[in-house]
């Protein structure tokens, strides 16, 4: 695609500051909510499942509505289409995050009344957290394809954000052990909320929205949804993202169980592998992209990761060979590095849509994507939850020795079987993604032409206004 001017350092810094609360608050939520409410607070399995279903419905419905709302915001009245949402919603968002972890006054017993009260607290706070986080995160995400259409610049900014996210990633390393009904965990969450609010202030202060998009409007919501779904490139992204969401939701929600399986001291090794080896693989893939293309790299690396992971499951099913889990973790991390290009699959359909219809509507795409994929955030943990229940996993334990052989095998199947099956299925959608090679190059040229016309229109309007003022 056509290379545009590099973005100013302040603008890049402002945008990537948003990765800190994304990692910090989102990471704490994913790592802790199941352990907190199921194991520490004692909410019954029945209420956990019911709560996850309600959360799935709310999570699915609210995103397209939020996307349509943002895309049709009057920038002349509010000063922006995206940043206004972050400015006014992020303070409420962080307050709700704090409240999620303080159900004080609810007795920890299995009486029907107290279980129901705890269930209501679980559902209400989780749904409020989800809705507010979607408003903030979707409008923040929409800023990146708005700021630049250059693929290298998008991948680089996304990668810089990942590096900055190392800070909160290190901070949340102890969350799987810390999560519980205690003041230490609550104080940590208050600290995380304050840091996140400061980061959102930096996003609003330094990020800049592109002027030529300020007058763009999405068509009526049903028309917008139909146009979005008709995009082959977008639907390929949706399929890929659905299975990647299943994977990430399982891995984060039950990370504390995986760490128990890996043994004492595994948390530090796990995060070291994810951070340093993972980023090293990301860098390697970005350097290889100009020669091989992102699609080929995603297919090649994903195939090796998925097939290798399933072979690893066969090996470690034998308890005597469990030591292989450690090099297996490194192997999976290396060949998961091409996932850095997910941001390109996500943003290119938006560029294609702008060329086709003439207006830009990032959050509508993110909203419809969420309508079709967000329920995977609930389905993934529920699939793993079902495996744990079926294999007689004992909640509340701290060592793998407390679990039966069936439960241990169930944990292995979740992380090395289910996860890698989903990796392989996701490759089908990468293969069908049409924006590659000559089509991608042609899209870049067409997109630059559309942007040039919009810039010329803005200059023409300014000149007309100046002429009127002179009269």
Walkthrough of the structure:
By secondary structure, the protein is mainly α. The chain has one domain: Growth Hormone, Chain: A. The chain has 21 helices and no strands. Helix 12 packs antiparallel against helix 17. The mean pLDDT is 84.
Give a quick rundown of the structure.
The protein is an all-alpha fold and 471 residues long. The protein has helices spanning 9-16, 19-40, 45-71, 75-78, 83-99, 112-147, 151-164, 166-171, 175-178, 183-206, 221-229, 232-253, 255-262, 266-292, 294-316, 325-334, 342-357, 362-373, 376-390, 405-432, 437-470. It has a single domain, classed as Growth Hormone, Chain: A (Up-down Bundle), CATH 1.20.1250.
Break the fold down into its secondary structure elements and pairings.
Blueprint: H1 9-16, H2 19-40, H3 45-71, H4 75-78, H5 83-99, H6 112-147, H7 151-164, H8 166-171, H9 175-178, H10 183-206, H11 221-229, H12 232-253, H13 255-262, H14 266-292, H15 294-316, H16 325-334, H17 342-357, H18 362-373, H19 376-390, H20 405-432, H21 437-470
């Amino acid at each position: 695609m056509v290379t545009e001017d590099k973005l100013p350092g302040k603008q890049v810094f402002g945008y990537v500051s948003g990765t800190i609360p994304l990692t910090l608050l989102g990471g704490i939520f994913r790592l802790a909510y199941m352990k907190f409410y199921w194991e520490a607070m004692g909410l019954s399995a029945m209420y956990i499942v019911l709560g996850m279903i309600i959360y799935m419905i709310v999570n699915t419905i609210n995103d397209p509505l939020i996307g349509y709302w943002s895309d049709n915001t009057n920038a002349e009245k509010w000063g922006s289409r995206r940043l206004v949402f972050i400015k006014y919603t992020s303070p409420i968002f962080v307050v709700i995050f704090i409240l999620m972890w303080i159900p004080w006054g609810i007795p920890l017993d299995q009486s029907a009344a107290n279980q129901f009260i705890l269930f209501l607290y679980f559902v209400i706070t989780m749904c409020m957290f989800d809705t507010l986080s979607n408003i903030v995160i979707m409008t923040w995400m929409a800023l990146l394809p708005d700021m630049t259409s250059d693929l290298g610049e998008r991948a680089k900014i996304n990668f810089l954000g990942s590096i900055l996210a190392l800070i909160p990633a290190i901070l949340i390393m102890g969350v799987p052990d810390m999560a519980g009904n205690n003041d230490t965990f609550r104080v940590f969450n208050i600290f995380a909320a304050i840091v996140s609010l400061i980061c959102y202030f930096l996003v609003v202060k330094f990020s800049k929205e592109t002027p030529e998009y300020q007058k763009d409007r999405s068509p009526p919501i049903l028309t917008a949804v139909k146009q979005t779904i008709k995009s082959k490139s977008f639907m390929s992204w949706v399929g890929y993202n659905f299975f990647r969401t299943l994977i990430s939701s399982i891995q984060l929600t039950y990370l504390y169980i995986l760490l128990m399986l890996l043994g004492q001291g595994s948390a530090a090794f796990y995060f070291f592998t994810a951070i340093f080896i993972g980023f090293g693989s990301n860098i390697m893939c970005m350097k290889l992209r100009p020669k091989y293309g992102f699609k080929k790299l995603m297919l090649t690396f994903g195939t090796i990761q998925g097939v290798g992971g399933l072979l690893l499951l066969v090996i470690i099913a034998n308890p005597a060979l469990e030591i292989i889990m450690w090099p297996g973790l490194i192997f999976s991390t290396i060949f998961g590095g091409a996932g850095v290009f997910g941001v390109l699959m996500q943003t290119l359909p938006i560029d294609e849509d702008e060329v086709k219809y003439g207006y830009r509507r990032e959050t509508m795409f993110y909203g419809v994507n969420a309508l079709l994929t967000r329920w995977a955030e609930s389905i993934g943990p529920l699939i793993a939850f079902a495996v744990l229940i079926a294999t007689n996993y004992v909640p509340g334990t701290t060592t793998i020795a407390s679990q039966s052989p069936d439960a241990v095998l169930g944990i292995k199947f979740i992380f090395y079987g289910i996860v890698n099956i989903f990796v392989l299925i996701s490759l089908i959608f990468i293969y069908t993604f049409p924006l590659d090679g000559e089509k991608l190059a042609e899209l870049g040229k067409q997109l630059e032409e559309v942007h040039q016309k919009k810039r010329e229109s803005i200059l023409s309007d300014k000149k007309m206004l100046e002429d009127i003022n002179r009269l």
